[in-house]
Amino acid sequence: MATLSLVGARLLRKHQVGACTDVTGFGILGHADYLAQAQKNKIEFVINRLPVYKHLLKVEGKVMNFRFLEGYAAETSGGLLMSVNPSKKEALMRDLES
User: CATH for 6-97?
Assistant: First the structure.
């Protein structure tokens, strides 16, 4: 994670991200639920884009407990899921995209 997520880790410190987890063994929804349970205030979870490997859906139903379509696939190196203050969101997104 230290190598794969180095840029993301630097940006989360720069933009004072409140919480972060690497999306691996519990899928995007499993990790989102984990972060949501740790929040004191109400949160909103929005996915605008979700990259998918070509032919990934062919694996669904053929690999035991791969639950990709449900959001609980056990990805490896699935990226970072961050909880950020709405006032810092736009600046963080600009930095991530650049």
Answer: 3.90.650.10
